[in-house]
Design brief:
The protein contains eight helices and ten strands. It is an alpha+beta fold.
Length: 299
């Protein structure tokens, strides 16, 4: 049994369940259920297979073979997966970590219209500033060439100098408004406070399953929806279409959230009863089971 293989290897390496929990971000209660073969006490086969894969990798075992065996033991066929091949998403961003302004540390190439709007806005500000400088220079030359009796009159340009600053503020505000209005589709970013197992589907297609390391930020974009499942919801900070929504959930909690074009807050992302029932009917043997209450961690 897969649970016996994992337990024997853990004991052989002199590790406790607490050591494995710290190294994999899998709750000790779930590790204990995996080793005892209590699959019904795990939060569903999808999560269970992810836990087995990460546990096996942590121990240095053949993760894919053990996941396949685990699926066969529990009446589920495990489709081969290679989450490492699904992580080229960061290549779609340009990192400018050496630039002093932290606001420019990451630039996404996904929205060209927003970039054009920013360029044109800054160009307009430059033209306004240049015009003000030219006007001010002309007024100074005029004052020098005029008779002494006329120099007492204050140059009219002095009352117009604050204009470029207000124009720049208006242009920056206009740029921010255009950038928010030009968000196309559904874009979800997560930043990890600690390493966590995560599964992501974009427009109904699974695009990622595996561990995201602490401190990393991952972004997914779809036309209609992005669904994110996390084994430790408290480890994720979520940003949706440029708006920070906060923590994905509570620490140690397994949570699934669905982001769509109509999403305004995290409370809008939890699956409705109808969609949850439809997902359970198509999941087959992967139907989630509630975690056991009152079980204690063992070493």
């Amino acid at each position: 049994m897969v649970g016996d293989i994992l337990r024997r290897e853990r004991e052989k390496q002199g590790l406790t369940i607490a050591n494995v929990e710290k190294g994999t971000s899998i709750r000790g209660l779930y590790i204990e259920h995996i080793e005892r073969g209590n699959v019904a006490e795990l939060p569903g086969m999808v999560y269970a297979k992810g836990f087995v894969r990460n546990y096996a990798k942590f121990l240095g075992l053949n993760a894919e073979n053990l996941v396949q065996q685990f699926a066969e033991e529990n009446g589920s066929v495990s489709a081969p997966s290679a989450p490492e091949l699904e992580t080229p998403a960061p290549t779609r961003r340009i990192s400018l970590s050496n630039v002093g302004d932290e606001s420019l540390s990451k630039i996404s190439i996904g929205s060209s219209s927003a970039s054009y709007a920013g360029i044109f806005g800054k160009l307009a500000v430059g033209i306004i500033v240049l015009a003000a400088l030219v006007g001010g220079g002309a007024a100074v030359l005029s004052a020098i060439n005029s008779p002494a009796r006329e120099t007492a009159a204050p140059p009219p340009v002095k009352t117009e100098q604050p204009a470029p600053a207000s124009a720049a503020a208006e242009a920056d505000a206009s740029d921010a408004t255009r950038a928010a209005a030009n968000v196309d589709g559904v874009r979800v970013s997560v930043t990890l406070a600690e390493r966590c197992w995560t599964e992501v589907s974009v427009d109904g297609k699974s695009v990622f399953e595996g561990i995201i390391e602490r401190g990393k930020t991952e972004t997914w974009q779809g036309k209609e929806s992005v669904v994110v499942r996390a084994g430790n919801a408290g480890a994720l900070d979520v940003t949706f279409n440029g708006k920070k929504l906060g923590k994905f959930g509570d620490n140690g909690e397994v949570v699934e959230r669905r982001f769509t074009k109509t999403t305004k807050d995290l409370k809008d992302t939890l699956p409705t009863e109808a969609s949850a029932h439809a997902e359970k009917s198509t999941a087959g043997s992967d139907k989630p089971a509630k975690p056991a209450k009152g079980a204690a961690n063992t070493q």
